[in-house]
Amino acid sequence: MFSKAPAANDPVATNVNPEAKLGIDDLKNMTVKEIEAKIGHELTWKQKLGIKMLKNKAAKAERHPEKPAASGSTLIGLLLGLVLFLIGVLIAYIAFAMKECHQRSLDRSRRSVGIVFGGIVKKTSINQEFVGRRDARSIASLFHLGKFPLLPYLYPHKTKNQGLMKLLQDKVALVTGGSRGIGAAIVKRFAEQGAHVAFTYRSSAAQAEAIVAELEALGVKAKAYASDAGNFAEAEALINAVVADFGKLDVLVNNAGITQDTLMLRMSEEQWDKVITTNLKSVFNLSKFALRPLMKAGGGSIINMSSIVGITGNAGQANYAASKAGIIGFSKSLAKEMGSRAIRCNVIAPGFIETDMTEALDEKTRDAYLANIPLKRFGKANEVADLCVFLGSDLSTYVSGQTISVCGALHT
Ligand code: NAP
Question: Which of 201, 225, 320, 369 is catalytic?
Fold first, then answer.
C-alpha cells in the first residue's frame, strides 16, 4: 500500500524519512502517528512542521491545479485572430473614407481607394489624369477635417505640407470667356483654390491653350472649349461636353461679354442684337443647360458678370447697359426659382477694370472715370476674380440673389 521511492530531491521527505521507507505520497496521506509507527521512532518538531507544510502544499495544489502552458497552436490562433481584426479595421476605415468622399464627389471615392492601395487600384479611376498629386490633396483635405487621422501615416509623403483645405477644392467650374481679361483671372484664381476648370473662348485659341497649361501646372484638370456663348445649341453641347469630361458641374460663371458702344442715334440693329445676344442671351443659354448638372451635384453657384453700367446706365452704351441690367433681373429671378434646390445665383457688377475691353476706351473717357473713382485707381481683374472665389465657394452658402459691385466705390 506504501509507495517505495521517496522524492530524492524533496528535503522534507529525506529529512523525515532518511531510510527511504516512505514515498512522498505516503508522507502527504499518512497521519504523524502512522508515520512514526512506520519509521519506528518519534518525529522531531521540525519534521512534524515539514510534514504539515507538505500536506498544505498538496491541498493547495489540489484546489488550484496548474494550468498547462499555452501550446503552439493556441499562439497561432491568437495571431490569426489579431490579423483578422486588423483587416476588419482597415476595411471599415476604407469604407468610411469612401463614404465621406462619395458625399463630395463620386470621382474622389475612386481616388481614395487608389490612395489607400497605392498603385494597385489607382488605374481603375475613370479620369486617370486626376490621379496623383491632386488625389493626395483631396485626401489630405479629409485629414484636415480631422476625420481620417491615419492617412498621414499611410501616405506621409503625399499628405505633408498640404496646408489648409482650399476654398474650391475639387469643385468643377465652367467660366465663359476665360481666355482674356477678367475671365482669365477667374480661371487662374479658381485653379489656385483647387477647382478643376473648364472655360470657353470665341477666337483666342492659342491664348486659351497657354492658360490651360498654366492651370494644369497648378495641379488641377483644365480644358478650353471654343464655344459661342450666345448660341443656344452650342451652349447645350458645351455643358454636355463639360459634364462628360469633368464628371460634374458645381460652379458656372457667365463672364463672356462684349461692347459695341455708340450713341443711340447711330446704333444699328446689328450692334443691339450682337451685344444683347453675347451678353444677355448667353446667360440664359448657359444657365438653362447648367441647371440639371447643378441639381445633380446637390446644388451649386451661378455667378453672372454684369457691370455698374447695368445699374446706373451710361451714355453711348444703351445696348451694353440693357444687357447688363437684364442680367440683374434674370439672376434675381433664378435665385428665387432655384433656391429650394440649393442653387445660388449672384451678380458681380465691376466698375472700371483694366482689361482689353477698357483698353479700347479713349484717354478722355478713362480720365473722366478716374476722377470719379473714390479709390483713385482702376480695378484689377484679380480683384473681381477674388469675389468670384467667394461666391463660388462654401463661404457664401447663404448669399443668393445679390448684386455686388467691385468698383472702388464709383457706384455707391
Ligand atoms: P475682355 O478682356 O474683352 O474678354 C472677353 C472674354 O470673353 C474673352 O475671353 C472672349 O474670348 C470672350 N468672349 C467674347 N465673346 C464671346 C462669345 N460670344 N462666346 C464666348 N466667349 C466670348 O473682357 P473683360 O474686360 O475681361 O470683361 C469680362 C466681363 O466683365 C464682360 O462680361 C464685361 O462686360 C464685364 N465687365 C468688364 C468691365 C471692365 O472694366 N473690364 C467692367 C464691367 C463689366 P476671345 O478671347 O476668344 O475673344
Answer: 320
